[in-house]
Amino acid sequence: MSEVKVTVLKDGPYKVEGPISMKDHEENQIEVPSGKAVALCRCGASTNKPFCDGTHSKIGFEGAKAAVEAHRKG
Ligand code: FES
Fold this sequence. Notes:
Blueprint: E1 5-8, E2 14-17, E3 22-23, E4 29-30, E5 38-40, H1 55-59, H2 65-71
Antiparallel strand pairs: 1-2, 2-5, 3-4
């Protein structure tokens, strides 16, 4: 797969699929599992940032539906 696909999961993380590399704010490489989708925390509560650790379910995170709809095309 050569295309990066980002899916905003309902009341959950951003699912990122495709060939990606990640760095932190100091340009340190963040290991990303090769060939697998990664889930990036959207709720801010993960203890394993930038990755989702499932905490969004425990805290009852609700995605910003209005913001999503405002930027949706088509
Ligand atoms: S989105 Fe899953 S822990 Fe934040």
